[in-house]
Amino acid sequence: INIWCAAGKGTFGTSELVNRIEVSGLKQVVDHRKLIVPQLGAVGVSAHQVRKFSGFSVIYGPVRASDLPLFLEADMNAAPEMRRVRFSFCDRLKIIPVEMVLGTRYLLVISAVFFLLSGLNRSGYSLNWEVGLVSVLNLVMAYLAGTLIGPALLPWLPGRSFSIKGAAAGLLAFLVLFLGKLAGGHFLQVMAWLLLIPALSSFLTMNFTGASTYTSLSGVKKEMR
């Protein structure tokens, strides 16, 4: 569960926590009144309000669920490394498949539309396999730039905002296509893909804001204006 994102936008918060305690009948299940909450959920949970309305005391656990056994063994005292947020290259790679899978259906639909539209010409309509396949390839590259390259290379891409970083990843993808002579057969096609690929990549990379550990709800809203 992406607690950081859920707490930031309010879906994992005080009222929801109190509601779940009541709905689940937790008071009848356990004989204590302590509730361990993920550390990154602290931005959305008011401990004193939870205690007031539910009777449970909130204890902020470690950042990672994998540290819970050690946390419990230490009488619910977190070691410094349990409080430290990591967002390394490997951590980002673990999150990437989620965004890739969620967006695949949209990629398939848009690719099919572009493939069919490639047959339009001045004489009417005639399916153009070469142009159609190139269009699909370029869309796939834009998709990979936004969902794979952008998140994976996040610290090294220029700019602070995710939109700029995503656009930079898109430009890298376009450069690969251009050097491979797959960015279009004439000037207008090349310019169209030059604008479209970074734009799509930028949009897709912005979806990664909720999975990162250094964004905030206000920052995301500001970036999307």
Unreliable residue stretches: none
Radius of gyration: 23 Å
Give the helix level as a range of percent.
55-70%
- What's the average pLDDT? 88
How far the N terminus sits from the C terminus, by CA atoms, comes to: 27 Å
Structure description:
The protein is mainly α and 225 residues long. The chain has 2 domains: 3-83, 3-Layer(aba) Sandwich (Rossmann fold); 89-223, no CATH class. It is built from 11 helices and 4 strands; from the N terminus they run αααβαβαααββαααα. A two-stranded parallel ribbon has the order 1-2. Strands 3-4 form a two-stranded antiparallel ribbon. A hairpin with a 2-residue loop joins strand 3 (120-121) and strand 4. Helix 7 runs antiparallel to helix 8 and helix 8 packs parallel to helix 10 (187-206). It is elongated. The mean pLDDT is 88.
Helices and strands in order, then pairings?
Blueprint: H1 3-8, H2 14-24, H3 26-29, E1 34-37, H4 47-54, E2 57-60, H5 68-73, H6 80-83, H7 89-117, E3 120-121, E4 124-125, H8 129-152, H9 162-179, H10 187-206, H11 217-223
Parallel strand pairs: 1-2
Antiparallel strand pairs: 3-4
Helix pairs in contact: 2-4, 7-8, 8-9, 8-10, 9-10
Keywords, please?
elongated, two-stranded parallel ribbon, two-stranded antiparallel sheet, 61% helix, mainly alpha, single chain, Rossmann fold
Summary of the model, kept short:
This protein is mainly α and 225 residues long.
